[in-house]
Amino acid sequence: MTGAPVSTVPLSAALALGDDALVLSHRLGEWAGHAPVLEEEVALANIALDLLGQARTLLSLAGDEDELAYLREERAFRNVQLVEQPNGDFAHTIARQLYFATYQELLYGQLAAGDGPFAPLAAKAVKEVSYHRDHAEHWTLRLGDGTEESHRRMRAGLDDLWRFTGELFEPVDGLDVDWTALRDGWLTLVTKTVDQATLALPTGPQLGAWTAGAGRQGIHTEPFGRMIAEMQHLHRSHPGATW
Amino acid sequence: MTSADWPLWEVFVRSRRGLSHTHAGSLHAPDAEMALRNARDLYTRRSEGVSIWVVPSAGITASSPDEKDPFFEPAADKPYRHPTFYDIPEGVRHL
Amino acid sequence: MTTTAPEAGAYEAVFDATVAADERIEPRDWMPDAYRATLVRQIAQHAHSEIIGMQPEANWITRAPSLRRKAILMAKVQDEAGHGLYLYSAAETLGTGRDELLDKLHAGRQRYSSIFNYPTLTWADVGAIGWLVDGAAITNQVPLCRCSYGPYARAMVRICKEESFHQRQGYELLLALSRGTEAQHAMAQDAVDRWWWPSLMMFGPPDDESAHSAQSMAWKIKRHSNDELRQRFVDICVPQAESLGLALPDPDLRWNEERGHHDFGAIDWDEFHEVLRGNGPCNDQRINQRRQAHEEGAWVREAAAAYAGKHSEAHREAQA
């Protein structure tokens, strides 16, 4: 199977998944030249490149990848708010990776097992995101069970981003996914890693958070507007130009 | 460990099935698991490998260049170990 | 070792013969102290250039004007981190650890290529860096694949192989701009105007002023003189610029039938020395960012080391 014809692909789902990957890839790209150690420059860039590749495939299913990335207004983006959160320190970035990569692996796993239009893409992507989850887990363990400072920072990262995780399990139109099973699987995996890292799963609103479902409706957080302003500026300054 | 200086690891990559692992280079990592992951990112990011070994550099015992002669000279007088030692009549193939 | 040590002279004779026979010197071989020091200095400078060189290009990752260009640029900046790592490893085989070299870089006691002290002001600068800066670097680096020191030569083989796409992407990027709108063409020409002369300076001072050249050539660390490589680069670039439809900013640039090479104008060596002294547009900015990333990453490196310590102890206890 070489990818379903565009007409059979649910547009909103392609945008939701594509925007998730696009936005997280952009955030990870901001680390270039700032990573805590050179080996991590290479690792974070690998993850960013995988995600950008996924974004390009998904957005191309929905239309022209560059038009969609560069010419939509903030309210038209369908990514979850979790992926647009600023990098913060390395622990925040790892917490975001842990939450999101675990979700993405389970989601793509289900899509790959099904026979929907995203199955071929998901089958390839699930291998990539499984490595992203592995990377996040290894760092969660080292930061959680490292020094006092790293423990404190890792806990802060997990806590701060917790309220953006409820949105991950809001059903997306056009995706044939068992969302309850997805959430249960996600909780099990994240809890296991967090426990092993001598940390505790955050408390506080998750599914009930007011943000839950907002990103998918085009309601984003303030930093996102600045992020896409930077991302789109050059492209928009030269209407119709090719690059 | 109080130092944040990560130890050095040597990386060996099997580029494809049927070949042995070959030394690709080295890198720093806090432990073996991370060394393996760093090696995967660094030395196989253009799909150069199917299997990776990492070994702490400190764990390698090497022959000393001073011992070169006693170590390697004996082999030098055993040319019969090398296929070019043997004359084969012209026309004989697949040897 | 307690075996009777041949006197240093005998070792030196072996070293000289190895170099003369065009064979490689390997890490545990005896080598003159000055050879070792020269290599550490050169490899470190090369490694530092790779990682400082990430900054001017990373400056445009978040603003790349198409997703294709963004992927290419990210992959390229990532390669530079990787190349820095290969080179620090090569230096490490000479007994100098990466941390020590980074400390020297951060303290301003070791150099990196001055070209990275110029700013990337527009998107076209990403193209100019790929075409001219990487082009000059490749001209310098290809002969290093035959450098007499094995680990350095092997690192360079890997780097040159991986870098082949860097220059091409830069050229392609500029070509798209040059053939694009008027504004895009002007952007490309402006970038070439700003990067051409600094690129020529990348080959180092003229041969008669180059402090380390003669000894490095004798040791086969270096294979061609600065001026020789610079001339080769100019000759390569002239027809490439024509195909791009962009002008090189040198009124004295013309073909010299007699020499079989292009003549070119005088390089402003005062500018070169000023930038080298730390007075270029971005010297402070580049080092500060590097230092900041290193300092802000300290707690991460400490955490991973602490974790490894705890868990190897736990592992030992479990086995006991």
Describe the structure.
The complex is a heterotrimer of chains A (243), B (95) and C (320). Chain A contains nine helices and no strands. Helices cover 63% and strands 0% of the residues of chain A. In chain A, helix 1 packs antiparallel against helix 2 (38-62), helix 5 packs antiparallel against helix 6 and helix 5 packs across helix 7. In chain B, strands 2-1-3 form a three-stranded antiparallel sheet, with helices on one face. Chain B has a domain at 3-63: Roll (Ubiquitin-like (UB roll)), CATH 3.10.20. Chain B has helices at residues 32-43, 68-76; strands spanning 8-14, 22-28, 51-56. In chain B, 22% of the residues lie in helices and 21% in strands. Chain C has helices at residues 8-20, 33-52, 54-58, 67-92, 98-106, 124-141, 150-178, 182-201, 213-218, 226-244, 269-279, 283-296, 298-319; strands at residues 254-256, 261-263. In chain C, a hairpin with a 4-residue loop joins strand 1 (254-256) and strand 2 (261-263). The two termini of chain C are 34 Å apart. The chains are: A mainly alpha (243), B alpha+beta (95), C mainly alpha (320). The interface between A and C is large, with 49 and 48 residues. Chain A: Its EC number is 1.14.13.149. Chain A: InterPro entries: Aromatic_CoA_ox/epox (IPR052703), Ferritin-like (IPR012347), Ferritin-like_SF (IPR009078), PaaA_PaaC (IPR007814), PaaC (IPR011882). Chain A: One of its GO terms (biological process) is phenylacetate catabolic process.
Summarize the model shown.
The complex is a heterotrimer of chains A (243), B (95) and C (320). Chain A has helices at residues 11-29, 38-62, 65-70, 81-84, 90-113, 119-144, 148-162, 179-196, 222-237.
Summarize this structure as a short list of keywords or feature phrases.
heterotrimer; A: 243 residues; mainly alpha; Ferritin; 9 helices; 0% strand; B: 95 residues; alpha+beta; Ubiquitin-like (UB roll); 2 helices; 21% strand
